[in-house]
């Protein structure tokens, strides 16, 4: 390590304490340069004067907001600085590990990095006489997401510099070459450690041992080590290892591991495996798709993959390989000159021919896939002229649009002049023009934006104008930080909209976005809906989701598709002769057709387009900006591609007899590195692998789900291993912590399964083990030192919890939690079934014959019986059921009759010694007079428990209905019988209703009679319940003559039992200028009798007066109230309100006596209103007089109030030269002000203030 650090000198630019630039020799290793960056970061001081300040400082950790606190004592300057690491930019971010298709954006947010770590960083420096003598820095990083409370895996980094001696300048060679570097940490691409073939062979042998009978817990960890070991082998060795591995079981692990290695050597072996037929097409497609997510491809990979694209490459091969090219080009700007990339792209371009011309549907799909592959790669060799012919010649519209979209990932140096011309050409189809517009806007320049805006002002095609206007407007209004360029190039001025943008008729761009600058988090959803002049339905659409995280915009996914030929399909569904002839839908469709014809200009191509009655289209999925899935369909019968379900796979395996299936997966392989103050990287890593196995042996015959005959054993097993690591890597040594979790399950099932149609299901399985574990999870914690793991000892108590015994089995779990707060995952977690009885297994049998169904469940060998049996027999109109179980025995006999007018059922159930009998019946008669007679009887051991019988008769011609019901329950003394009748009679416009309900043999009844007509309403209700009686009658009449409406009503009610009789007479008269209500209530009872009257009289004389009178005369009091408002003369109004109450206790008293008067005596040029109000209430009298006067020379307000004996007043007089205020409210105050002008420029103001006590 010392030799590497001292091998070469490092020059750097040092300006006023800042390290601005490094000059390193080209051969300097990156890890060495990072260490030297750490030293320079501790050496750097951005603020050398006393005081405090926040600055942006660039060092090994990036560009960070740094707070300085400097103190000067004599010539000793003490510097303390704290960095906010969450604000740092230009440092590795976790989003770069999520996707290669991310783009950077700038924002002034205080949060600039992914908050996976809670980090602090600070330095203390001492400067004496302008020379740095000492510097100490300390930094902590705590990983929090899966830690409890304040705990968590934590790393502390410290550095200390101290001035030892001073030397003069050292001469350096001027012939040595240097490269410019920044002080910011450089990420190191991990190189695979060299491996030996013997290591791989030993791992394969060990894997075979731990998965031969079942998958053991250590299998996934061994598989992960196998993948890592394979990465260190060159192609000749790796190929020899694969060739020498002849054992089928061991080779299966190699086949599973090889696509996960991610090296050029492994890609070459995968190629050999595919060529030899050792790799299925499904596995090959999965590998090609995974290439889209490979982070660090090399040129040799393309050389290895290129032969696999020679003849008839699959869609996954084209899309996955092209996405890998795109990733390679992001880290290698001159990738277009790479021979491996050129080999791949030439094979893709060969699919296009000379101009994307297809003779059939199959060729068209191949061309479309190749065009999408070019769009993924964003690079090509000789495709420019071919692509231009593809979208300018008379090809299928989908091909033309796809050829234009091939420019979506290309560098801005690629010529887009022809695309701009295609957009500006109104003779082109609107789909082509919109696609061309979107392609040129991937590289916007002031000239391009100006050309687009100029074209928009003169646009004559509404489809194109609508889309471009909505797209540009959304760009202007977007909150996405990655679209800030639009506001710069387009300006803030709103674009004029002269286009129709109806959503159901014209092409549009939709965008919704938000961005929270405080958190540096946002998202945007964008959608394009493109119509064609040839259809009233949308022709294509897409939906895109992009998230903005801490300075990186990540395009998560995009889904889209294209349809044609659905117009006739909708007609067949919703047209006049369709399956759903809905008028509103058909009308809407006709309207859309007519609008299309009227608003869109057509070209010759519109009329020559081939019509089709068969719907067709395509759909695609893009992840992180790359096409990973594309499908083309024709018709609605579904995809012709085979689909495989887990059940179909299991049945296919079972038909083969003996099954030995093993599959290994890599679920996760990710790492995240951040620089520390020392220049050493802190790496967070996560790896997860899984191995599943299925062993089956015996006699297997599975034709379908209804024809199964299996006898043998089934042993499924699986294990998942997860490693999480936090390590500081000093290249020659490393240290950190590691957590390793393993989840394992292994069960065995032996027995038989027989299914024969729907007549037999016979299942039996053995339980030879006392304890069957189906989940076993163990977590271990380690210290990591130089790739060696030292386990942290643990002594946690084990907690066992078991459920209640179910059929001789207990479900139990065991758990142990770590005692340290630094760790949160349980160290032990198990779930298992444990036998609580001696059963050797379980049996289940189902049989069905013509007249019988039987079910049987049993646990042979159990000390406590678990037997449960159920049988059902049906003969003619009789049914027999038996239940025989360890907790109940029962037998049921039943018979039934089902005729047109007679239905009955009889059921007898015996449970133990008890016999339950149920009888039910239903008699019916139909015709003008309909009868329904249901009945139900229940008895237990010969004793009646409940019975009921109901008779309902409906005479529909006579509108007569009757009900008779008798009910008995064992808790009742005697049966309850009820009779009821209801009748309706119509004569002219008068309708009569009568109803009666009574309890037989008891004085309980309820009668109702009612007569209704437009003129009258009469009702009568009579009720009796034993001695209690109630009679209520109501009569109302209504007349309307000569504009006067009269409503009269009489209501009587009484009860002999309670000795109460009441009679109420009401009359309401509504006339044009009056309303009168009179009411009289006459009550007679032993508690008190009397008469109560109410009169409400409202009278109006139009334009003159309004009077109101209310008189209430009750048994113990009288109330009289009247109000009068009238116009005494023009401008003179008077008002009167009086209310009196008289009771035997208080006698007659006045509640209120109020008068008011207002006179308007204003003349032309004057305003003069006088008002007087007097209110007398039982306590006191209040009077108020007011005078308001105003003309051109003076204004006057005089308010005088007297409350009882107290007087209050306020008087204000104002002229152009004086103001007088005399206020006598709480105190008496007089204010007098006058203004006198001596000359035109001089005025004198006099003011007096008088306070009168």
UniProtKB/TrEMBL annotation:
<dbReference type="GO" id="GO:0008289">
    <property type="term" value="F:lipid binding"/>
</dbReference>
<dbReference type="Pfam" id="PF09172">
    <property type="entry name" value="Vit_open_b-sht"/>
</dbReference>
<dbReference type="InterPro" id="IPR001747">
    <property type="entry name" value="Vitellogenin_N"/>
</dbReference>
<keyword id="KW-0325">Glycoprotein</keyword>
<keyword id="KW-0732">Signal</keyword>
<keyword id="KW-0445">Lipid transport</keyword>
<dbReference type="GO" id="GO:0045735">
    <property type="term" value="F:nutrient reservoir activity"/>
</dbReference>
<dbReference type="InterPro" id="IPR011030">
    <property type="entry name" value="Lipovitellin_superhlx_dom"/>
</dbReference>
<dbReference type="Pfam" id="PF01347">
    <property type="entry name" value="Vitellogenin_N"/>
</dbReference>
<feature type="domain" description="Vitellogenin">
    <location>
        <begin position="1"/>
        <end position="541"/>
    </location>
</feature>
<keyword id="KW-1015">Disulfide bond</keyword>
<protein>
    <submittedName>
        <fullName>Apolipophorin</fullName>
    </submittedName>
</protein>
<dbReference type="InterPro" id="IPR015255">
    <property type="entry name" value="Vitellinogen_open_b-sht"/>
</dbReference>
<keyword id="KW-0446">Lipid-binding</keyword>
<dbReference type="InterPro" id="IPR015819">
    <property type="entry name" value="Lipid_transp_b-sht_shell"/>
</dbReference>
<dbReference type="InterPro" id="IPR015817">
    <property type="entry name" value="Vitellinogen_open_b-sht_sub1"/>
</dbReference>
<keyword id="KW-0813">Transport</keyword>
<dbReference type="InterPro" id="IPR050733">
    <property type="entry name" value="Vitellogenin/Apolipophorin"/>
</dbReference>
<dbReference type="GO" id="GO:0005319">
    <property type="term" value="F:lipid transporter activity"/>
</dbReference>
<keyword id="KW-0758">Storage protein</keyword>
<dbReference type="InterPro" id="IPR015816">
    <property type="entry name" value="Vitellinogen_b-sht_N"/>
</dbReference>
């Amino acid at each position: 390590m010392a030799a590497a650090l001292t091998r070469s000198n490092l020059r750097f630019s040092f300006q006023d304490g800042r390290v601005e630039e490094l000059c390193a020799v080209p051969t300097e290793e990156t890890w060495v340069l990072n260490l030297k960056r750490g030293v320079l970061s501790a050496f750097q001081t951005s603020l050398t004067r006393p005081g405090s300040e926040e600055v942006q400082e660039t060092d090994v950790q990036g560009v960070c907001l740094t707070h300085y606190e400097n103190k000067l004592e004599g010539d000793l300057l003490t510097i303390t600085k704290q960095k906010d690491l969450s604000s740092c930019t230009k440092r590795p971010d976790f989003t770069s590990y999520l996707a290669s298709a991310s783009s950077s954006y700038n924002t002034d947010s205080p949060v600039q990095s992914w908050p996976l770590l809670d980090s602090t960083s600070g330095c203390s420096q001492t400067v004496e006489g302008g020379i740095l003598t000492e510097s100490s820095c300390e930094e902590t990083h705590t990983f929090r997401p899966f830690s409890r409370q304040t705990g968590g895996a934590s790393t502390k980094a410290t550095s200390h510099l101290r001035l030892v001696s001073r030397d003069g300048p050292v001469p350096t060679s001027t012939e040595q070459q240097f490269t410019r570097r920044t002080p910011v940490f450089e990420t190191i691409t991990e190189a695979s450690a060299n491996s030996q073939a013997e290591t791989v062979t030993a791992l394969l042998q060990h894997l075979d041992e731990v998965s031969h009978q079942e998958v053991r817990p250590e299998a996934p960890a061994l598989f992960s080590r196998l993948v890592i070991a394979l990465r260190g082998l060159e192609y000749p060795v790796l190929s020899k290892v694969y060739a020498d591995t002849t054992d089928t079981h061991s080779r299966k692990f190699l086949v599973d591991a090889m696509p996960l290695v991610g090296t050029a050597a492994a890609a070459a072996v995968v190629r050999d495996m595919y060529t030899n037929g050792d790799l299925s097409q499904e596995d090959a497609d999965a590998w090609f798709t995974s290439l889209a997510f490979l982070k660090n491809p090399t040129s040799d990979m393309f050389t290895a993959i290129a032969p696999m694209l020679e003849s008839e490459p699959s869609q996954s091969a084209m899309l996955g390989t092209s996405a890998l090219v795109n990733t390679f080009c992001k880290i290698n700007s001159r990738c277009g000159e790479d021979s491996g990339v050129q080999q791949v792209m030439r094979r893709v371009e060969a699919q296009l021919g000379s101009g994307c011309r297809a003779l059939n549907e199959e060729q068209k799909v191949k061309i479309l896939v190749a065009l999408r592959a070019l769009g993924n790669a964003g690079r090509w060799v000789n495709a420019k002229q071919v692509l231009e012919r593809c979208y300018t010649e008379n090809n299928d519209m989908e091909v033309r649009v796809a050829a234009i979209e091939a420019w979506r990932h290309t560098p801005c140096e690629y010529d887009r002049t022809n695309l701009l011309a295609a957009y500006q050409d109104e003779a082109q189809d609107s789909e082509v023009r919109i696609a061309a517009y979107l392609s040129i806007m991937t590289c916007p320049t002031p000239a391009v934006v100006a050309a687009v805006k100029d074209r928009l002002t003169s646009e004559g095609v509404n489809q194109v104008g609508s889309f471009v206007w909505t797209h540009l407007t959304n760009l202007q209004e977007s909150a996405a930080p990655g679209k800030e360029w639009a506001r710069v190039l387009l300006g803030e001025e709103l674009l004029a909209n002269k286009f129709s943008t109806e959503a159901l008729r014209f092409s549009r761009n939709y965008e919704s976005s938000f961005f929270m600058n405080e958190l540096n988090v946002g998202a945007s959803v964008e959608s394009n809906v493109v119509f064609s002049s040839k259809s009233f339905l949308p022709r294509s659409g897409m939906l895109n989701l992009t998230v903005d995280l801490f300075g990186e915009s990540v395009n998560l996914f995009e889904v889209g598709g294209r349809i044609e030929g659905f117009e006739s399909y909708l007609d067949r569904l919703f047209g006049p002769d369709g399956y759903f002839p809905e008028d509103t839908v058909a009308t809407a469709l006709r309207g859309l057709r007519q609008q299309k014809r009227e608003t869109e200009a057509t070209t010759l191509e519109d009329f020559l387009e081939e019509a089709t009655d068969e719907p067709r289209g395509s759909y695609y999925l893009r992840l992180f900006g790359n096409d990973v899935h594309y499908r083309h369909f024709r018709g609605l019968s579904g995809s012709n591609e085979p689909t495989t379900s887990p059940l179909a796979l299991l049945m296919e395996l079972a038909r083969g007899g003996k099954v030995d299936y093993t599959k290994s997966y890599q679920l996760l392989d990710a790492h995240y590195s951040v620089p520390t103050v020392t220049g050493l990287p802190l790496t967070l890593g996560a790896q997860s692998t899984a191995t599943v196995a299925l062993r089956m042996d015996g006699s297997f015959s599975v034709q379908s789900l209804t024809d199964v005959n299996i006898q043998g054993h089934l042993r499924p097993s699986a294990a998942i291993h997860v490693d999480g690591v936090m390590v500081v890597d000093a290249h020659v040594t490393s240290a950190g912590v590691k957590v390793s979790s393993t989840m394992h399950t292994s069960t065995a099932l032996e027995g038989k399964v027989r299914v024969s149609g729907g007549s037999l299901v016979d299942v039996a399985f053995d339980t030879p083990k006392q304890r069957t574990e189906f989940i076993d999870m163990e977590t271990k914690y380690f210290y990591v030192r130089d790739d060696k793991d030292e386990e942290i000892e643990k002594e946690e108590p084990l907690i066992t919890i078991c459920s209640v015994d179910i059929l001789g089995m207990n479900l139990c779990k065991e758990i142990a939690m770590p005692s340290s707060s630094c760790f949160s995952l349980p160290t032990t977690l198990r779930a298992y079934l444990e036998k609580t009885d001696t059963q050797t297994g379980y049996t289940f049998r189902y049989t069905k014959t013509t007249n019988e169904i039987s079910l049987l469940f049993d646990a042979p060998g159990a000390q406590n019986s678990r037997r449960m049996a159920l049988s059902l027999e049906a003969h003619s109109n009789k049914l027999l059921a038996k239940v025989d179980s360890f907790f109940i025995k029962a037998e049921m006999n039943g018979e039934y009759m089902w005729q047109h007018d007679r239905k009955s059922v009889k059921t007898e159930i015996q449970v133990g010694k008890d016999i339950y009998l149920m009888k039910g019946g239903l008699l019916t008669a139909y015709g003008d007079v309909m009868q329904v007679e249901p009945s139900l009887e229940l008895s237990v051991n010969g004793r009646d428990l409940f019975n009921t019988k109901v008779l309902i008769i409906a005479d529909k011609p006579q509108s007569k209905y009757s009900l008779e019901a008798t009910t008995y329950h064992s808790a009742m003394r005697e049966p309850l019988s009820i009779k009821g009748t209801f009748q309706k009679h119509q004569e002219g416009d008068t309708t009569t209703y009568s109803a009666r309900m009574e309890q037989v043999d008891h004085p309980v009844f309820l009668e109702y009679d009612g007569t209704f007509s437009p003129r009258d309403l009469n009702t009568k209700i009579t009720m009796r319940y034993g001695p209690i009686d109630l009679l209520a009658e109501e009569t109302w009449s209504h007349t309307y003559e000569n504009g006067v409406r009269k409503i009269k009503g009489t209501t009587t009610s009484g009860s002999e039992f309670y000795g109460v009789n009441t009679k109420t007479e009401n009359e309401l008269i509504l006339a044009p200028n009056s309303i009168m209500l009179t009411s009289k209530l006459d009550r007679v009872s032993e508690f008190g009798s009397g008469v109560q009257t109410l009169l409400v009289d409202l009278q109006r004389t139009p334009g003159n007066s309004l009077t109101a009178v209310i008189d209430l005369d009750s048994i113990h009091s009288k109330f009289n109230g009247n109000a009068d408002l009238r116009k005494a003369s023009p401008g003179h109004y008077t008002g009167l309100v009086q209310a009196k109450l008289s009771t035997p206790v208080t006698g007659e008293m006045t509640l209120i006596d109020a008068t008011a008067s207002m006179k308007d005596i204003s003349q032309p040029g004057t305003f003069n209103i006088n008002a007087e109000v007097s209110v007398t209430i039982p306590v006191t009298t209040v009077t108020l007089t007011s005078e308001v006067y105003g003309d051109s020379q003076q204004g006057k307000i005089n308010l005088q109030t007297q409350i009882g004996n107290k007087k209050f007043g306020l008087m204000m007089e104002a002229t152009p030269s004086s103001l007088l205020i005399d206020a006598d409210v709480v105190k008496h105050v007089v204010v007098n002000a006058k203004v006198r002008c001596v000359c035109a420029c001089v005025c004198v103001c006099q003011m007096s203030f008088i306070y009168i006590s």
